[in-house]
């Protein structure tokens, strides 16, 4: 077995572990998203925030005495959106013999973009709740504006992933 073969098997094993962790520890990932959202919302919506990572809840409007909390549910996390990317990355590394750098970089960039997209969506929900009240603000922020943000973010993530993951790493020559 060559060094490259051993390296490829180790990378594939690491991706398999990552996949299992995402699928079995998604509640922990949602908790991290809530903690990150607490900071992002505090800065961008100018409100006092808090987070409960065990329940994946980010709260805001704490300064008013009437805090509001949003729970990041399994349907609203960016974790599950990463699952297909991890699987495709594993397949690319398994089927291609050119190395794993570009597919892994594509996975990292796309995952960060998905996480950032979800943070932007949470901020939009918070801002609309603050501006329109809970009922209307949540509806517009989560259902309408949030869905549009998600669609664009997922599209940008997929394009970035594809452009990076299919690179061969070889220099291109002029035609």
From TrEMBL:
GO MF entries: peptidase activity
GO biological process: proteolysis
Annotated localization: Cell membrane
Main location (coarse class): membrane
TM spans (from-to): 77-95, 102-127, 139-164
UniProt topology in membrane: Multi-pass membrane protein
GO cellular component, one term: plasma membrane
Keyword terms, alphabetized: Cell membrane, Hydrolase, Membrane, Protease, Transmembrane, Transmembrane helix
Ligase is among the record's keywords: no
NCBIfam families: exo_archaeo (TIGR04178)
Protein name, as recorded: Exosortase/archaeosortase family protein
Native organism taxonomy: Bacteria, Bacillati, Actinomycetota, Actinomycetes, Streptosporangiales
């Amino acid at each position: 077995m060559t060094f490259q073969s051993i390296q490829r098997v180790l990378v594939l094993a690491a991706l398999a572990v990552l996949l299992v962790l995402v699928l079995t520890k998604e509640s922990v990932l949602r908790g991290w998203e809530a903690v990150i959202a607490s900071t992002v919302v505090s800065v961008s919506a100018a409100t006092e925030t808090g987070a409960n990572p065990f329940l994946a809840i980010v709260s805001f409007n704490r300064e008013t005495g009437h805090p509001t909390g949003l729970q990041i549910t399994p349907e609203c996390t960016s974790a599950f959106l990463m699952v297909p990317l991890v699987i495709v990355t594993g397949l690319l590394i398994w089927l291609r013999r050119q190395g794993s750098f570009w597919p892994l970089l594509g996975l990292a960039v796309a995952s960060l973009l998905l996480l950032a997209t979800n943070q932007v969506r949470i901020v939009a929900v918070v801002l609309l709740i603050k501006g329109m009240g809970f009922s209307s603000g949540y509806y517009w922020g989560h259902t309408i504006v949030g869905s549009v943000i998600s669609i664009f973010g997922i599209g940008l993530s997929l394009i970035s992933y594809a452009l990076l993951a299919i690179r061969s790493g070889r220099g291109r020559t002029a035609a």
